[in-house]
């Protein structure tokens, strides 16, 4: 039904703010826990036993800190709403919540087996799921179920940086075969049914002295130097004193085919090397595929990639190498409301040997330096950057930037000490706010931009919040991180940082056009200590997937004495990161 004047198209009642041990959803909806850390994934996996964990078991079980979630219908290419593959990232580990007797920040006490468990708890999972009636379940022992880990999965480097001397190691003289993936944050899906997943904060995994390597400038730009994990103690490849080039093999976007459990995942070096939050795709009207991505660090950039070739809807295999050739650009936001996309191509402007770029491999490895030289606009931590399939406009989450100084503002990042973050609209020519997505030109050199909202509490003038109208007591949010669109093109924003303002993280929805544009309404709330990741819907909007990351991760909370035992609430169970599914009571579309 059309919304009345001044009204939102959303029909669910606002969920009140909370901060407690459990997750919550708006009245009229039901939460089901679908899969938790330690649940069996591949055939032969044992049940989770928190006091007797092993790396061998973890490598077959659901990993830790679920982040990105994709629902991929079965069979491939269909829009089946009730049966598919759930593809999930496992971003990082919290040893003090995973193992008994480990204090927060104590990496010294971890054994090799515990380190290997952490490595096996990183990566990615594929799980076949099915709806029976209104209840979702994992298909146990499905041959399509899969785990990828930091411990043992082999990845192939492809594109311009594959095989370059700077990617060669003692263990891999070819410079093309990498063991493991780390810090897999958000991701995306391609029109041909593959998954993209990000390697984000990879700098924190490496031991040794980066300044003593030939890559000192590169590693400094990416923040290597202080290891947050004990991996380098037991695995030479995570120690730059022993393998000085290994960090050049991380920080990429991975593409893999979830429908083929034996497929080798590829690190696509055409998409550049930085702290990828994720990458989302859109099929342009001329058949080329366009990828949008953010580099999640303070004062880093927004990127766009355009394939050289075009998508072939009739030959899935022909699309598998599309992301290996094309042009990466970085965004400059201008005072007059325009955006220029600046191509990061060897030989273009300052991207020459004189400045340290002898070829395109160098540009892709040192892409931040290339973007600096091109004059890109430093942003307030770009997290998800995602096209709305209905109106073709790209919504970019700037999560926050408390280091932004009053004398260092720019047109699109205009709040000093930005605690709450904001959402930017990146507008290709041909779009209209109320829906004209098919006419968008995602290959244009020049776009425009607008501010969708500025997060924060409108009751506190010092927050400088800006919404499309009155969001009420519970409609305000803080620190937008991940985003999804339902099939009506409404925006669903998941947050990471609410607890710093006394509210649980969760998801908020809003119209993007009409009288209630940017009037956010709270739908789902995390348990305490958690952030919310991976908003995702089934093609019929009948199910919403909520990835709850690091529940109970707050001051003083440990495995032995956690602040919540969500979602099991059993005395012998620690808090467990988990994916929950939300359905409407009695069935039907969400929202
Ligand atoms: Fe892993 Fe940018 O959040
Ligand atoms: Ca995260
Ligand atoms: Ca994130
Ligand atoms: Ca975040």
From TrEMBL:
Domain of life: Bacteria
Annotated PROSITE patterns: TAT (PS51318)
A Pfam match: PhoX
Name used for this protein in its record: dTDP-glucose 4,6-dehydratase
Annotated organism of origin: Roseospirillum parvum
């Amino acid at each position: 039904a059309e919304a009345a004047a001044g009204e939102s198209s959303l029909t669910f009642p606002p969920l009140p703010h909370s901060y407690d041990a459990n997750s919550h959803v708006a009245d009229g909806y039901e939460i089901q826990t679908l899969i938790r850390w330690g649940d069996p994934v591949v055939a032969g996996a044992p049940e989770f036993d928190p006091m007797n964990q092993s790396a061998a078991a973890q490598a077959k079980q659901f990993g830790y800190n679920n982040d990105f979630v994709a629902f991929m219908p079965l069979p491939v290419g269909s829009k089946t709403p009730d049966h598919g593959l759930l593809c999930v990232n496992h971003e990082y580990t919290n040893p003090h919540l995973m193992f008994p007797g480990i204090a927060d920040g104590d990496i010294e006490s971890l054994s090799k087996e515990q380190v290997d468990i952490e490595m096996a708890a990183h990566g990615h999972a594929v799980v076949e799921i099915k709806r029976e009636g209104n209840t979702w379940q994992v298909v146990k022992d499905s041959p399509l179920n899969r785990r990828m880990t930091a411990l043992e999965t082999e990845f192939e480097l492809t594109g311009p940086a594959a095989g370059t001397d700077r990617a060669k190691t003692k263990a891999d003289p070819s410079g093309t075969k990498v063991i493991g993936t780390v810090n897999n944050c958000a991701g995306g899906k391609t029109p041909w049914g593959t998954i993209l997943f990000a390697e984000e904060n990879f700098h924190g995994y490496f031991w040794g002295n980066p300044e003593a390597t030939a890559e000192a400038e590169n590693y400094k730009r990416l923040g290597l130097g202080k290891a947050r994990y004990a991996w380098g103690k037991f695995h030479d490849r995570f120690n730059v004193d022993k393998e000085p080039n290994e960090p050049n093999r991380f920080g990429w976007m991975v593409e893999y085919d979830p429908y083929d459990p034996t497929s080798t995942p590829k690190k696509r070096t055409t998409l550049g090397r930085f702290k990828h939050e994720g990458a989302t795709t859109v099929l342009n009207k001329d058949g080329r595929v366009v990828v949008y991505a953010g580099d999640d660090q303070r004062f880093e950039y927004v990127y766009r990639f355009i394939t050289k070739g075009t998508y072939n809807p009739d030959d899935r295999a022909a699309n598998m190498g599309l992301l290996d050739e094309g042009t990466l650009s970085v965004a400059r936001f201008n005072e007059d409301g325009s955006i220029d996309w600046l191509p990061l191509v060897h030989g273009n402007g300052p991207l020459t040997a004189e400045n340290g770029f002898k070829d395109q491999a160098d540009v892709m490895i040192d892409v931040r330096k290339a973007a600096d030289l091109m004059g890109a606009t430093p942003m307030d931590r770009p997290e998800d950057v995602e096209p709305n399939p209905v109106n073709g406009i790209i919504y970019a989450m700037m999560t926050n930037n408390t280091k932004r100084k009053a004398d260092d503002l720019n047109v699109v990042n205009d709040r000093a000490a930005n605690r709450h973050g904001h959402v930017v609209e990146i507008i290709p020519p041909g779009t209209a706010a109320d829906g004209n997505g098919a006419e968008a030109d995602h290959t244009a050199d020049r776009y425009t931009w607008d501010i969708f909202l500025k997060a924060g509490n409108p009751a506190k003038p010092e927050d400088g919040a800006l919404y499309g109208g009155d969001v009420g007591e519970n409609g305000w949010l803080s620190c937008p991180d991940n985003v999804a669109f339902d099939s009506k093109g409404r925006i669903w924003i998941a947050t990471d940082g609410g607890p710093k303002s006394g509210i649980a993280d969760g998801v908020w929805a809003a119209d993007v056009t009409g009288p209630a544009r940017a009037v956010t309404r709270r739908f789902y709330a995390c348990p305490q200590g958690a952030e919310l990741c991976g908003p995702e819907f089934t093609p019929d909007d009948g199910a919403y997937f909520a990835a709850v990351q690091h529940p109970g991760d707050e001051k003083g909370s440990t495995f032995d004495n956690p602040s919540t035992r969500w979602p099991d609430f059993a005395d012998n169970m620690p808090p467990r990161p988990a994916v929950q599914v939300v359905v409407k009571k009695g069935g039907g579309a969400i929202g």
